[in-house]
Predict the structure.
Amino acid sequence: MHLKGHAMMNWSKQTSSQRIRSFKASAPATAINLRTFDQPFLAARQASIQQRMKVDGKREPLIFDVPRNAAILVDGVHVYIQMLDFAEVMMERERETEASHRRVLSMLHLNYAACDQVAEEYEAQRVDFHGSRMHAVIISPPGPENAQERAERALAFADAVKRAIEEVGRTTENGRYSTRVRVGVDSGPAVAVNSGTRDEREPLFLGAPANYAAKLAEGDQEGIFLSNKVRRDLDMQPLFGLDELYTERSNPAQTTGIGGLSGRAAFQTMRMSDAAVLNAASRARSRFILDVGTDASFSFHRHTPPLKTIDFTLLMPSNSIRMGLMSIFGDIDGFTKYVDECIAGGRIREMVANLHVIRSELAATLSEDFLGRKVRFIGDCIHGLVAAGTAHETNASDSVVAAVKAAGGMRSSFELCQTELDGIEALGIAIGLEFGETPVTRIGIRGDRSVRCSVSRAVSTSEELQKRCDGDQTALGPQALQHAPAGIRRLFDSGVAWGLDAESVGEHLSAPATISSGAISATAAPYCRES
């Protein structure tokens, strides 16, 4: 199957409506099995894990392979680890090259291994790796009476993983993968659901603590940043602004150890010793040398469009893709607030059922209607790739058109979901698009826990653009704008389009060149989105 130009890619209201009704029928809210992660659940799960280990020697996380028609309410501590120097490693003299992409993939493979080694020591569940970020959660021991112990273990884990990443970077390949590390930590109730595919069995944790921990991990200053919820669980003084967090981390007179906790006996007991950190770093290096060895072990080839035909199960460092393509991020705007309202109002089953329908339809629109490839779901966000061209080269202009049409189709599909599903009328979808040379592969632990990985300036830019958009906006990156034909450029004033759906895209692509306004706003004020 080959994609020639963009004539064959179209969105159909009838097709989308039929799919939505089918997805809705397959996972109705009344059929969602809602469980709570409590002591009986933990005991049963630990027995199951022990039995599995006797059979094949594999140890699964405490929450794993959640059925599609199930959801688990979990009170835990969420930890986001951010590698701050990731972007610099990706570039070579201000340019992305094949060599720089090999280097950044090697860096991620190494540091993913270090994170996983430490997670095993703390029974921390790795939820996902996404580019330069790791999301993990501490969920045991369960129960409100154990909140302090979970917080202390999460803090000790954050401290250990930060030290391990720094150590493994310092001692591998003469420090070429070194990076500063920033960690965000928050706690509270979240809902674990299935990630949605047979070859991605990691659960996703939806709710405010995961979202806020990720926000605390954003920034340029290294350190461990705790939310006030975590601070209260640790009997620490609450803070009321990020400026105070920066001051606390940078002023030795105000803090010793981690956030002033070096005197706590419990934290000192849980804190990984220097020898243990060195051992974890050594095991990570050994895995890295076994799996990768050097940057050169990442071998790239082109994938003939359409990207829908990419088989992630076949990808690995020695069999990776690198080519010009469009990166698409589509995020459900306002969803975290919606999750919190559903948790508080006893509507978790409704939320889970709605999420399955929305994500399934967005993924189907991308892959079935526009022949793109989903990389992964990141919470309520979808990351996908689109390209047009031949086995020998990418047609940049056609790729931009294809991605913009896919974005329009995704918005139209989302709006149809709103007419079919209850309770989501206040939500929107924010979409970011950018073009560039991008590698696509799988890295980390071999087998069913390896990680789909697609990292590049295009990926980072499209994600950042999506974060700046509100639920009615689509943003097109500077590289994509350069390659866009006039019909597409008319849609994006200063790179942003409002209400860009399938109909709007079709009208502007077929309109004469003199048309410069219509359903899309012609004034691009600075744009931002609700957190």
